Automatic annotation (TrEMBL):
Domain Chorismate mutase: 1-91
The name this protein goes by in its record: Bifunctional chorismate mutase/prephenate dehydratase
Domain Prephenate dehydratase positions: 105-285
A molecular-function term among this protein's GO annotations: prephenate dehydratase activity
Function description: Catalyzes the Claisen rearrangement of chorismate to prephenate and the decarboxylation/dehydration of prephenate to phenylpyruvate.
Subcellular location: Cytoplasm
InterPro entries the record matches: ACT-like_dom_sf, ACT_dom, Chor_mutase/pphenate_deHydtase, Chorismate_II_sf, CM_dom_sf, CM_II_prokaryot, CM_P_1, Preph_deHydtase
EC code: 4.2.1.51, 5.4.99.5
Protein's pathway: Metabolic intermediate biosynthesis; prephenate biosynthesis; prephenate from chorismate: step 1/1; Amino-acid biosynthesis; L-phenylalanine biosynthesis; phenylpyruvate from prephenate: step 1/1
Species the sequence originates in: Fluctibacter corallii
Keyword Transport in record: no
C-alpha cells in the first residue's frame, strides 16, 4: 500500500515535470521572437535592468508560493543564461548565413567521453546542422584537420581555472591562419573511474591526461604509492581502464564520459579547486561577423620592440580607448631567444570604432600585431539582485 501511494506521488511529480518542460520550450520560442525584434531594431541582446526587474518580480511571486528566494534566483539565472545564449546564436547565424552548414565536421582532442568531446556537444547543440565528430590525438592534428579542410571547426581547450593556460594551444595559434570564431566555458568535474567494483585503497595504476593530473595534484598526493600513467586525452584514459577491467586500475575523468565506457564512479570532486572550469575556443578557416548587439571578445597577438616600457605603452592604448583586457599571456617566439609573443583577449568588437582604432595604433607602434578572431562572448554573468530586495517578505 505504501509503495502504491509513493508511486502515485511520483507519477504526479513526473506529470508536473513534463508540464514544466513544455512551458520552458514555449518560453524559449517567445525569446526567439524577442531576438527577431532585436535584430530588426538593432537592440542589444542583454538588458540588465529588465533582467533585474524580472528576477525581483519572480522572487516575490515565488515567496507567495513558499519558495526560497535563492532557489528562485538560481533557477532563473539558468533560464536567463539559456535565453541570452540562444538569442546570441540566432543573431550570429543571421550575420553569417554562409556558415550554416548541413553537416558540421568538428575536430577535438580525444574520443567520445573526453572533456573536449563534451564541450563540442555543448557548443554545437545551439547551432544548426548535424554534428560529425572527429577525434584527434594531438593539438597539432586538430589544427591540421581544419587547415586541410578535413574538418570545418576545431574545439581547443585554452585555459583552466586550476592548472592555468594550455601553452601548447597558444603555440599552435601563433603559427596558424585559422580564426577564432567562438568560445565556451565548461565545468570540469573530475571523478575516479573503475571498470570493477573496488575501492580507492586497492588502486595501483591511475590513467589521466597530464592536465588532469595537474588539476588533481592534492588528491594524488594523498593516494600514496600509485603508478601514474599519462594519456593523450581523458577518453584514452577511460578506454585503457575499460580494456584492463581490473580492480587495481582507475582513470580520472568525467562521470558523463565514464558512463559511455561503462565505468563506475568511486570518488567525485577530485580537483584542487572545487569551482573548476575550462575555457575552450572554436576555430575555423574564415572569421565571422559579430553583430554589435552581441557582447563580444577580440583576441590578438603582438610582439613589442625591445625597449623599456614597450609593453606598457601598448597596453595604455587599450586603456585610453576604455577597452577591458581579460587575458594577457606571453609565449617565447621560436628562433628569437628572449623575445615574447603576447596573446591578449579584450572585451570589444573589431567592427566597433574604439576597437578598430586600438588595433590600428597597436599595428603602428608594435613590431607585429595580428587579430586572431572576434567572436561572441559566452561568459554570461548572472544578473545581480540586491540582497535586501531578494529577501522581501
Amino acid at each position: 500500500m505504501v509503495t502504491d501511494a509513493l508511486n502515485d506521488i511520483r507519477q504526479a511529480i513526473s506529470e508536473i515535470d513534463s508540464q514544466v518542460l513544455a512551458l520552458l520550450a514555449k518560453r524559449q520560442g517567445l525569446t526567439n521572437h524577442v531576438a527577431e525584434t532585436k535584430i530588426k531594431h538593432h537592440i542589444p541582446v542583454r538588458d540588465q535592468k529588465r533582467e533585474e526587474q524580472l528576477l525581483l518580480s519572480l522572487i516575490k511571486q515565488g515567496q507567495q508560493h513558499g519558495l526560497d528566494p535563492h532557489y528562485v534566483t538560481q533557477l532563473f539565472h539558468v533560464v536567463i543564461e539559456d535565453s541570452v545564449l540562444n538569442q546570441q546564436a540566432m543573431l550570429a547565424q543571421r550575420a553569417n548565413p554562409e556558415s550554416a552548414l548541413p553537416l558540421n565536421r568538428v575536430a577535438f582532442l580525444g574520443d567520445k567521453g573526453s572533456y573536449s568531446y563534451l564541450a563540442t556537444q555543448k557548443y554545437f547543440s545551439r547551432r544548426p546542422g548535424e554534428l560529425m565528430e572527429i577525434g584527434c590525438q594531438s593539438f597539432a592534428d586538430i589544427i591540421n584537420k581544419v587547415e586541410t579542410n578535413e574538418a570545418d571547426y576545431a574545439v581547443l581547450p585554452i585555459e583552466n581555472t586550476s592548472s592555468g593556460s594550455i601553452n601548447e594551444v597558444y603555440d599552435q595559434l601563433q603559427h596558424t591562419h585559422l580564426s577564432i570564431i567562438g568560445e565556451l566555458t565548461h565545468p570540469i568535474k573530475h571523478a575516479m573511474l573503475t571498470a570493477c567494483d573496488t575501492d580507492i585503497a586497492q588502486i595501483k595504476v591511475l590513467y589521466a591526461h597530464p592536465q588532469v593530473f595537474a588539476q588533481c595534484s592534492h588528491f594524488l598526493a594523498e593516494l600514496g604509492n600509485v603508478e601514474v600513467k599519462p594519456c593523450d586525452s581523458t577518453s584514452a584514459a577511460m578506454l585503457a581502464v575499460a580494456e584492463a577491467n581490473s580492480p587495481v586500475v582507475a582513470a580520472i575523468g568525467s562521470e558523463a564520459g565514464g558512463a559511455l565506457y561503462g565505468l563506475n564512479v568511486i570518488k567525485s570532486n577530485l580537483a584542487n579547486q572545487k569551482e573548476n572550469h575550462s575555457r575552450f575556443i572554436v576555430v575555423a578557416r574564415k572569421p565571422v561577423k559579430v553583430p554589435l548587439q552581441v557582447p563580444s571578445k577580440t583576441t590578438f597577438i603582438m610582439s613589442t620592440v625591445q625597449k623599456p616600457g614597450a609593453l606598457v605603452d601598448a597596453l595604455l592604448i587599450l586603456k585610453d580607448k576604455d577597452i577591458n583586457m581579460t587575458k594577457l599571456e606571453s609565449r617565447p617566439i621560436n628562433g628569437n631567444p628572449w623575445e615574447e609573443m603576447f596573446y591578449i583577449d579584450v572585451e570589444g568588437n573589431i567592427e566597433d570604432g574604439p576597437m578598430q582604432q586600438a588595433i590600428e595604433e597597436l599595428s603602428a607602434t608594435t613590431r607585429y600585431c595580428k587579430v586572431l578572431g572576434c567572436y561572441p562572448s559566452e561568459e554570461i554573468s548572472p544578473t545581480k539582485v540586491a540582497a535586501v530586495n531578494a529577501l522581501i517578505k
